[in-house]
Amino acid sequence: MTPKSNRSPSLESSLELLEMLENNGFQARFAGGCVRDRLMGLTPSDYDIATTARPHEVIEQAAKMGWKSIPTGLSHGTVTVVNQKGHWEVTTLRIDEKTDGRRAVVNFEGADFTQDAQRRDFTINAMFEDRNGVIYDFFDGRTDLSKKVIRFVGNPDDRIKEDYLRILRLFRFSSKLGFSIDPLSMQAAVRLKDGLQKVSIERISEELWQIYRGQNSLNIVTTLIENSFLPSVLNRFNLPPTTIQLKFEKERSSVDLKIQPWLVLTFLSLFKRTKETSDEILNMGLLLKWSQNKQKTFASLVTGWLRLEDQFLSRSNQMDFLDFLHSGDEKHNIENFYGPIWTCLATCFQDKTRLRLIKNLIEVDCKFFEMRINPMPISGDDLMAEYPQLKGRDLGRVLTLLKEHYRNGHWSSKKEGLDFLKTMTLI
Fold this sequence. Notes:
Elements: H1 11-23, E1 28-31, H2 33-39, E2 49-51, H3 55-64, E3 68-73, E4 78-83, E5 86-92, E6 95-99, E7 104-107, H4 113-118, E8 128-129, E9 135-136, H5 141-147, E10 149-150, H6 156-162, H7 165-177, E11 180-181, H8 183-191, H9 201-213, H10 217-226, H11 229-234, E12 242-247, E13 254-259, H12 264-270, H13 278-287, H14 292-307, H15 315-328, H16 334-349, H17 352-373, H18 380-386, H19 392-407, H20 414-421
Parallel strand pairs: 2-5, 10-11
Antiparallel strand pairs: 1-2, 1-8, 3-4, 4-5, 6-7, 8-9, 12-13
């Protein structure tokens, strides 16, 4: 069960939780990503806590503060503590006794912070911070942060074999943070990539989604393709095979593969165009067990990419296309979502036409955003008052033409629009 609160916890409440645990005889420190983000000068979206307290003790102490507890992962020592300001994952220090490539059997007995850090994925995620701001860094994570390097804790093969999802997490953090990948970590990822077949569809699709949204996505996509990671991921899924041709940015050769199509952010990086219909696109989203919102975004990315083959000769055409994107996916815009993803793909393909169109679309949306989202100054009622003979389809046709000329800058005010109408043939 996941807590419903989306509020980011405040640092003040987070410190209060640490203090409560310490005042009752337990050690407690911030752990992982929040420590990394704070060292990078970023505000963490959440504050995970590692503690010597057992799960039942965390629940008891939270209750004394009047805070709610949700047993989100008791077998792994995790309790989610919730109050009106947010939620915190509080996890008991642990040692992995046995792993199967995805899940671990853990032991809490005798675990300390050093041992807990040793079972984490990357050095930059294996640091702790106490409530006085003291950093505990057992594997030189701060040095890797300063060098902007992603490196596995300890032996890379051991960390990957504990959980093969860490291969994609390696690429996700490199894409998100813009960091390079430690050579030994990269070599281990390539060597053990077939282990990704142990990972569920849901987890793989989420990691790939995040990879494509990162600042370093172009380099990571190229790396995934050049090192043949995608067949290791895709071949286990029973989706219809498609013959595709890979063309690398630094093109040395073209390689034909029989490969199963994947989420749009991957299969569009493999071939320039697809014949999948909208229904088939949505069916793929169902197979990948996405939410309805993610399925809509998926469809908008695919259909929008295909429509980038058009020339969009006028500003009105460009704005109509932006309307189309917004109607299918209200949360994302061309500048911060579609544009970066498509630019990554078009760069991979050396597709100069799409690169130019994407740049133009971003410029148009930034410059004429208000014009696009606000109604034009002339309504259907205004038209009927001026031209009573216009009804039904004729009225709709004139409105459409008027809107096209408005968006192309041929008129701007209501008066200018009515004057412009006089130059049009109204039948």
